[in-house]
Automatic annotation (TrEMBL), chains A, B:
It holds the Pfam family AA_kinase. Residues 294-377 form the ACT domain. It comes from Gluconobacter thailandicus NBRC 3257. This is Aspartokinase. GO terms for molecular function: kinase activity. The lineage of its organism: Bacteria, Pseudomonadati, Pseudomonadota, Alphaproteobacteria, Acetobacterales.
Amino acid sequence: MSMSDTPVHDQVSGRADTLSMSVDSGKRKTIVMKFGGTSVGTIERIRIVAQRVKAEHAQGRRVAVVVSAMAGVTNQMVGYCAELDPLADPKEYDAVVASGEQVTSGLVAIALQALGVPARSFQGWQIPLVTDDAHGKASIDGVDGTELLKCLDNGIVPVIAGFQGVGPDNRIATLGRGGSDTSAVAIAAAIHADQCDIYTDVDGIYTTDPRIVKRARKLDRITYEEMLELASVGAKVLQTRSVGLAMREGVRVRVLSSFSETDDDSGSIVVDEDEIVEKELVAGIASSHDEAKLSVRGIPDRPGIAAAIFGPLAAANINVDMIVQNTGVDRMTNMTFTVGKSDEAAARAVLEKAHGIIQYGELETSHNVVKISVVGVGMRSNAGLAATMFGTLAERGINVQVISTSEIKISVLIDSEYKELAMRALHTAYGLDKKEEPST
Amino acid sequence: MSMSDTPVHDQVSGRADTLSMSVDSGKRKTIVMKFGGTSVGTIERIRIVAQRVKAEHAQGRRVAVVVSAMAGVTNQMVGYCAELDPLADPKEYDAVVASGEQVTSGLVAIALQALGVPARSFQGWQIPLVTDDAHGKASIDGVDGTELLKCLDNGIVPVIAGFQGVGPDNRIATLGRGGSDTSAVAIAAAIHADQCDIYTDVDGIYTTDPRIVKRARKLDRITYEEMLELASVGAKVLQTRSVGLAMREGVRVRVLSSFSETDDDSGSIVVDEDEIVEKELVAGIASSHDEAKLSVRGIPDRPGIAAAIFGPLAAANINVDMIVQNTGVDRMTNMTFTVGKSDEAAARAVLEKAHGIIQYGELETSHNVVKISVVGVGMRSNAGLAATMFGTLAERGINVQVISTSEIKISVLIDSEYKELAMRALHTAYGLDKKEEPST
């Protein structure tokens, strides 16, 4: 029953430490530039990416590049595998799907060379970037920075195929969808990069989704903890695992647009709390539709009820997120909680099987819910922030069904039809609205 | 000035010998099945390939599969590289282009598993199949059969990405266009296969091109030497290098169709001369348009003329194929010879530069020529076979411009407009016509 889906395996070996210490890279900034699928979606866009890299290289920076597959290619490969066998062997799936990043790495290296920038491609097995054997959704066990640092020391730009590594079985392993962000952070840690720039199709991290709240504001800085919570509760800009890894390894991650002009101050940067001078109480508001609400009603109230319900769910590897228990006057209790939508059917089956033990009256499921989360390091010291949330929602007549909190987050489950209203109201209430526009 | 373009580097290590000796594979036949790009061009065709492999596997055979990229994919990748840089770094070109075979190997493994056949893919670096560092057209330096034999011993079908290996620099290297045939033969040698079956879009090796000579006959058997000569003078069915490697390693190569029903006697087999009981004097007739004719006229006749002409050409790495020298009555001599069309401009430049030394009158070039070659082991013992060629061509009024011979081959250069006439006449004269139809 974990509160977040962040795996804890990803780690980076210190094998490269000795080498990096011995070279004089003290004055030159080392950066990782990561480009997603849309940024390298065509040959023309690959040329633009190469120009961006050249511009950094020309400033005397040591640059390593991490790339995704050209947009659409991964889906095509996944489609091929599924057409042959919807339950295709993950090891073969990985060999097929990882080819997309292999192609991009070679093409970007060619594009850089054509601009006069020395470059070479690296596949996961060539680095090596070693993963565990969970093919299709592997975690990084270690990255050997030696070969990459040799390139950087010689003025060569390594262009690394993201999303892939090599497992203990000497076979290609992929990190799961969006894994290129995690690759980039792991590479940045292994080469002791000063910064990991994630080029994407938005120009930074916002206080909330600008498509829902027009007054959403781009954040210049956000802490790892806040970004991690926001990513885990619905913000899509960075993969949760990549943020967790960046936090553990102390990698400064910057998110910026690959489709507009940028400079050293562009985008949003994810850093340690110590680096942020003027801390805001609340960093952002996220929403998630990935929850299903289950209510187990009419349970005879007795000790051990929670264990009787959540024990079997944990045994079935089902993550339970938010929980609320209401005890009625008639000595009957109701337990309401959320699970991931993809786990709903399995959760129902587990509970129906356990009916004899729990002896509940009825089991209800609802999809008609949305989880709204407010995240900010200010919550640690300011108890009034929770009250602001409940007060704001109550004023709008929005009923809170379930509540969960962590050190720097409050999440509420509400009826999904109130989603936009709740987000806009909370955005204003927490003082997150853009200054330029009136916050009425 | 070699007579053929067969490289001599490809070799197969015996590293797997000890292992293969220790297992009891005495009674079970081991075969390699190689499928070209059109045979795996769609998901549906990949399913058909898997069914063919399953049929062999079900007979209790130990089967290894070698695959090309899906038809069209390699050209797409080559196009991407060329669009970025027509002179793309061969190492990056290799990383990009080799992805095609990687995808097919994984997909064929999935298709086999879906049919209940245990299978796993192998990339060149996983075997490893080690090449030299001539990226883009690498030769095989050695194949370690250990991992492949482990699979076979466990009833698993290894599905190997053809066309690719790993260079001494730990980078992906490709073997040049058509290199998957060579991969298949090298794999067959490494796992001591009884036979290497090359599935393609024709149903065997013919006495000549059936599109030109309707009475062309499929050969049940042909010797390595004959196939090697035929491949080097224009027969396209097998890559020259693959035949040379098969000959040196003693791999029986069978060519058969992947688009029709086949059995153990289908197609044509390339074997050692000793295995052919009823030898035919002539195996086949091939034609090639890849030659350019150069004539250096009006050279003062003196010793050392040949060295003065061919020395600089050799120094410029230009292969000269056929040579004829005519000395006139006026103490002037003419030298006529052929080079590959792609070398023509370079050859002209070399000769123009050497004009002061050679002191020739004029330099003429012609593309309007075709090389017709008759190949057969019978030539070793039967001098009359050459006479048949010249007599047949003379009867038709076809002028022979240049002649070259090897132990088992006679090639003549003629005006290209006589190509079909010459081929049909020679086919009949050497008794190669199909029996069923009248040979008038």
